[in-house]
Records
---
Amino acid sequence: MSVLKIAIQKSGRLSENSKKLLEECGIKFYSGISVLKTTASNFPVEVLFLRDDDIPQYVEQQVADIGILGENMVFEKNKDVDIIEKLGFANCRLSLAIPKEEKYTGPHYFMNKKVATSYPKILSDFFLRNNITAEIEEISGSVEIAPGIGLADGICDIVSSGSTLLTNGLHEVETILKSQAVIIGNKNLIAEKQEILAKLLFRIRSVINAKENKYILLNAPESAVEKICSILPGMKSPSILPLVNKGWCSIHSVVKEDQFWDRIDQLREAGAEGILVIPIEKMIL
Ligand code: ATP
Ligand code: MG
């Protein structure tokens, strides 16, 4: 019997969410501090705990069949692997930043300057696209400190809120890449492994869909039903149940998480009362 080998980050910003995603897919496995490899007890997968930098290479070489990591690392390593699914967590961007007292005039600002980064490939592609000749100083961590200690004129690094840049006297001037966690896969998986992967992806999509949607219940006078149904798109169409109170009903539907605040204002205006918004655990489409 084949097992699908999944590489996830051992310890870092992706680890908790990667483990949680597999657990939410109903996959049970043990993950102690010193565990580097573990087999799930109820699904044909083996989980390998690795540094995120190594995952693209291991997936290309089929040491692992699939891996979970940031798109930034996938593009930087540029290995021959497929991006199979976007996962919607670890959202960040790879940006250029310069000392905050410096005025930015566009990408040519970097002409003949020195930029420190852990992403030399993505950065040199960016400079090439913009016809800029600049020196790239590759360092593996604490990149933000480079201008302050005279190592470089600017940096190219991962940003989420931008607060680390500010603390180090830098300001963000150019976004090179937007990134989120993705699943990458080896290009030559045997049929049995592809079957396991298809089952896993079905579960992952159900978990992601559930997170992106909310179940909404509300009461409304029957006269407002038509208006309210036009506001609620629902999966197919909303369910309508009569209430004991004559002339009233309860409407149930599913709304996208990112739309539900404006929908709620519209619903209240249309006469909806007692609105409940409930998380969905799994959503099978
Ligand atoms: P490793 O020891 O595995 O090499 P690392 O130190 O290189 O880990 P982390 O800092 O844990 O890497 O980041 C892993 C990934 O998480 C990054 O490649 C990026 O995709 C994402 N990430 C990094 N910083 C942030 C952030 N501030 N917000 C959201 N996502 C982030
Ligand atoms: Mg790393």
---
Amino acid sequence: MRIDILTLFPEMFTGVLSSSILGKASEKEIVEFHISNFRDFSESKHGTVDDTPYGGGGGMVLKPDPLFRAVESMSTDKKPRVILMCPQGVPYHQKLAEELAQEEHLVFICGHYEGYDERIREHLVTDEISIGDYVLTGGELAAMVVIDSVVRLQPGALGNQISAVEDSFSTGLLEYPHYTRPAEFRGWKVPDILLSGHHANIEKWRLKESLRRTSMRRPDLLEKLELTAEMKKLLAELEEEKKLEDKS
Ligand code: ADE
């Protein structure tokens, strides 16, 4: 997979893309990162990339020319997905991460200004993505979030492939609680069932705890899920337990 990043602040990416899973993925050539300063694609002598808005008003607007030239300079066989990071974009979620992870080439456009000339949105960009309902000073941090979530899904990027499959959101449920040694820490014990070695019971316990956590923290996720017969049974058990707790 090739990932291009167009930004006015390339230095923001250096630590993130060279550390941990992303750093290893690029060392192993699972992903190739190309970071460009789109100021280098400005035709003006001073490297101008923005201008005042037509019609007046405050703030500056990113000009179309440097960004079009930057994307068009990329030599690729297939048209890449060109992603504009902005608060007006579609809300980011795991399904979109899984979809983007299938692509061979992604281009991220990160702006730091009041706005983008609308022709960038209409004629250059294929996707607009927001990472949440809040406003960042620029698209760089948002692009890093998306890149991280996409690269970790590439085959071989995570040491243990199982961990991506069992992620919260991939299954549609939040993850069950995890424990490791010691079996007792400051008087707090690991649930007996996890020490029992009985795999079928452990799986059932994990599913029940995933359902418990999801119904408490993210009931909206449960509503979207097609429940299996086992899930329905476990949810009914949780409901009974809650009723008993409420009574006592
Ligand atoms: N740029 C500024 N805020 C953003 C957000 N919430 N998501 C994506 N890009 C952004």
